[in-house]
Specification:
single chain, Elongation Factor Tu (Ef-tu), domain 3, Rossmann fold, 6-stranded parallel β-sheet, globular
Length: 252
């Protein structure tokens, strides 16, 4: 899929956790964006010097379960970086403002020839965004393969930061072979749910009895989580081809 250059217009923005804001854009030319769930867009942040580019996973849940799907709204989840130029720019944006974009890109996607017994989708913070976009595809794959299971793990510090948690909990209630795990590193919820775990997300991995024969693992989010999880997976027999990674760097 060729990269597209476009201008996006901000349709709306809203805080969706105490530290994350969702920005919803549309193309200013009125066209749809065709993407594969799991991909990201590059946004150009104007500066006094050379423009800066930042990558954001598309969080939009498509209306269909196709591998390549067209969307009219492009949602991204943005967490602040202290002193970051992108943070300042996004904070100042108002509805109707334009921003240059390019995409979609990225290989953190489902492939047609993927036939594991389990997909393991691991994220921290806004790294869960691509998995949200994959939900229609997950539903389709579960319907087509009655042996398949999917586990999604999201690591956050506290319950208020469980980004898109309601979407995953609802999806789990509707799809019996989809399992959601919320991993809290600092504060557990007052009312414990069956999907709540104490500790960083990588601490929860041994509970899944992962095996390289059965599982295909996706990692998205904090570089430290990805590096530690990948080291653990290699230790138990996974090859690099069985682990797909996308790191979120907090650039200024």
């Amino acid at each position: 899929m060729a990269l597209q250059k476009m201008q996006l217009i901000l349709a709306r923005k809203q805080a969706i956790t105490p530290s994350v804001t969702e920005y919803v854009f549309r193309r200013d030319d009125g066209q749809t964006l065709t993407f594969t769930p799991g991909q990201f867009v590059n946004l150009t942040i104007p500066t006094d010097n050379k423009p800066a580019r930042r990558s954001y996973s598309i969080a939009t849940v498509p209306s269909d379960d196709l591998d390549n799907t067209a969307i009219t709204e492009i949602a991204i989840a943005v967490s602040p970086v202290e002193g970051g130029i992108a943070t300042r720019h996004f904070d100042a944006m108002q509805e109707g403002d334009l921003i240059d974009a390019m995409g979609p890109a990225g290989r953190l996607v489902f492939r047609e020839d993927d036939k594991p017994k389990r997909f393991i989708l691991i994220a921290t913070g806004t790294g869960v965004s691509p998995y949200r976009a994959m939900l229609p595809q997950i539903r389709k794959r579960l319907a087509e393969d009655d042996r398949l299971e999917v586990h999604a793990l999201l690591g956050v510090q506290r319950p208020s930061e469980l980004l898109y948690g309601d979407d995953f909990v609802k999806f789990m209630s509707e799809n019996e072979r989809f399992h959601f795990h919320a991993c809290y590193s600092r504060e557990m919820p007052n009312t414990l749910q069956a999907y709540a775990h104490s500790g960083r997300v990588q601490v929860c991995l041994p509970e899944l009895d992962l095996t390289s024969d059965n599982d295909l693992v996706y990692l998205c989010g904090n570089p430290q989580m990805i590096d530690e999880s990948f080291a653990y997976l290699q230790k138990i027999g996974f090859t690099p081809q069985q682990v797909r990674r996308e790191k979120y760097f907090s650039g200024k």
